[in-house]
Amino acid sequence: LSLELALRRALERSELRLHYQPVVAAADGRLLAAEALLRWTHPELGEVSPGRFIPLAEESGLILPIGNRVLDMLCAQMAAWRAEGRPLVPMAANISTLQFRRSDFVSIVAETLARHAIPASLLILEVTESMVMRDVERAAYQLGELKALGVSIAIDDFGTGYSSLAYLKRFPIDKLKVDQSFVREINEGPEDRAIVAAIVGLGHNLGLELVAEGVETAAMAATLRELGCDQFQGWHYGRAEPAGVFAQRLVGRE
Ligand code: G
Ligand code: G
Ligand code: MN
Ligand code: NA
């Protein structure tokens, strides 16, 4: 309970901020996008990992104001970079079940983009399979509304959830993010290669972009490139970086 109270205060005291992890083209490593990942520095506890505080935020409902703050901070950051004359890339925010299920979610996204004058095409929302599988009709409707707004949709941690393949054709999805668990041992045996090959084949046949997450080495990248992954995210290309560090990547692009 005390950590929950601390998290509530963190919102008021601006202890939460975003780091940005690059997403690059598999072909040549050029920057294509980024994922915003939340960080919390508590005045006494120091860094609290999102693996610890995100579940707490979800259980307590705090993920609603926190999720709104994430969208706001992300759009504000893009607006600030644009004001500095930096070329922007689409940026992804992780969305929680509770946020996605709210009937005002689409209007909050629209309002936040408008307030910062950020085109919807620069925003990617990452949702998980289990989130959209819970109520397929509603999810299809909601994703349709988000698409109509112009934002992109990525399915995060793909392959670990319900994996009902039928929904993929019903939902207006743009990207599949192959879960790290299939990438970690991609060069250790044939099993994960077979799984990733199947996911890539499925995704490409449905017209989706395939992103491999957790790409830690050049050897992993080589195998994933051979398997047809379009985009890479992982420590081999860059960790989640503070805004000031990531900004140095936003230069000299057309
Ligand atoms: O950055 P890291 O790998 O430690 O993140 C751990 C987990 O926290 C991941 O599952 C990630 O999706 C989640 N996470 C990070 N930032 C956010 C956020 O802004 N909102 C939500 N809902 N989850 C986040
Ligand atoms: O659930 P989601 O995919 O949003 O989680 C992303 C998490 O993966 C973040 O916590 C991020 O720090 C972590 N991550 C990003 N790249 C790598 C990587 O190359 N290796 C490992 N082990 N974790 C990574
Ligand atoms: Mn994610
Ligand atoms: Na993931």
Automatic annotation (TrEMBL):
It comes from the Bacteria. Keywords: Membrane, Transmembrane, Transmembrane helix. Residues 1-254 form the EAL domain. GO terms for cellular component: membrane. GO terms for biological process: signal transduction. This is EAL domain-containing protein. It comes from Zoogloea dura. The chain holds residues 841 to 1094 of 1099 of the full protein.
